[in-house]
Amino acid sequence: MKPRFPWGHATHPDWRMAAALCLAQVEAFSRSGGVGPPTLGFLYLTDHYGDQAPEILALMRERTGVTHWVGALGMGIAAGSAEYIDEPAMAVMLADYSTDEFQVFSGMARPRPRDARTPNGRRASWTAMVHGDSSTPDLPELVRDMAHKVASGHLAGGLSSSRHRNTMIADQVLAGGLSGVMLSEDIALSTRITQGCRPIGPVHRVTQASGQLLHTLDNNPALDVLLRDIGVDPDALARKPDGDDEDSRKQQTASTVRMLQGTFIGVGEGDAFKRGDYVVRPLIGVDPGARALAVGSELDTADHVAFCRRDREAARADLVRACTELRETIENETGSLSAARGAIYISCLGRTGALLGGPSAEMQLLQRQLGDIPLIGFFANGEIHHNQLFAQTGVLTIFT
Predict the structure, then answer these.
(1) Partner of 161 at 20 to 30 A CA spacing, among 33, 170, 189, 239?
(2) pLDDT tens-digit profile of 155-193?
(3) Quick one: 290 and 320 in the same domain?
(4) Separation of alpha carbons 19 and 77, rounded Å
(5) Are residues 122 and 241 in the same domain?
(6) DSSP letters spanning 114-169
(7) Last residue of a domain, one of 264, 291, 309
(8) CB 93 within 8 A of CB 42
(9) Which residues 6+ apart lie within 8 Å of 275 measured at CB?
(10) What's the number of domains the chain is made of?
């Protein structure tokens, strides 16, 4: 097995002290692990260090000898079992891949063509780790376009989250658009997404929709389908309220809305529900009279949907599910989880705090599931998986 990636993380009001603590951990890991000369660095900073990002990058490049760097700013970062939220912190991890096996790209350094090959004939543009600026117009279209530029059609990454300028790192500190690192087919990795929710019924086909209004599923009224999925008799709500005045109808609608609180709708096509990368959208309204639902995105009759619940139990169970699938994939391919060299975890800023159980609960659960592999990442303003932009999710990538 190849040695694991050197890594380190620290918090300190003075960025120089935090950088020195990170570098000391990296150097100690390098001395003990027998890793080859590093060639690619991952660097995540909280936005407390936003103004100092160019200096931090220059120092990391000078002290490590690594020329190529990717990363992003976040209002929080993650490393090991720790979450650094709203405090000055940084995390770094170094990989020792051949420079033929990756290419850092940005708006000023275009990625290699989709059909490019490495010297050994493998596909050079197989997948990519990407970071983006959430203020960029037409970002979902940019993500889909970027996915078309890699042979696997699969991306992993997230959007910078900052109270100031959204900032990414792609061999330099920059803003706007998408940037990151293109990875060749020679680099073995596995990725999973965790939605933080669980389906509460089967997958249904959209049979009538207009914009954000969902009329029918499987040719049945959408509200009736939802009620059956949560174990409520639709006929009971179909009865007219006591009194036929406007106040009675409003009370009936409010009662239905309260009953559906915490219910979301997962939207996807084809095998999206099997892969777990369906898009979760909120239910924003109900029309008991028309038996229709209003959804937080436009729908098409080609879509499939499943109703979901998002709560602590569901979020923890889905994160365990993602880790279990990754462990099984790695063990089947390599024989042991010890083949894991390092990992990147990009989680939604909205998942911090109580959703997973309290401060650092998400990273502690990850570490219990994966062991002590090098693990860094950040809390994003949107997550990227496969060819889509998500919210309220976590994207875990393990390099083997």
Answers:
(1) 189
(2) 999 999 999 889 999 999 999 999 999 999 999 999 999
(3) no
(4) 15
(5) no
(6) TT-B-TTS-BSSSEEEEEEETTSTTHHHHHHHHHHTSTT--EEEEEE--SS---EE
(7) 309
(8) yes
(9) 386
(10) 2
Q: Are residues 130 and 274 in the same domain?
A: no
Residue 2 in domain: no
Q: What is the pLDDT of residue 270?
A: 67
Domain of 72?
A: 7-196+314-399
Residue 374 burial (C-beta neighbours within 10 Å; 0-12, 13-18, 19+)? buried
Q: In terms of pLDDT, which residue wins out, 194 or 257?
A: 194
Q: At 143, list the tokens.
A: 């993500």
Residue 255 tokens, joined: 């009662």
What integer pLDDT is reported at residue 355 of this predicted model?
79
- If asked whether residues 292 and 209 sit together in one domain, one would say yes
d(CA 291, CA 361): 40
pLDDT at 41: 98
* Each residue's pLDDT tens digit, 71-123: 999 999 999 999 999 999 999 999 999 999 999 999 989 999 999 999 999 99
Q: Do the domain assignments include residue 1?
A: no
Bridge-based pairing of strands 173-174 and 168-170 is antiparallel
Cα(267)–Cα(69) distance, integer angstroms: 35
Question: CA 137, CA 76: separation in Å to the nearest integer?
Answer: 24
Domain end point (choices 280, 309, 338): 309
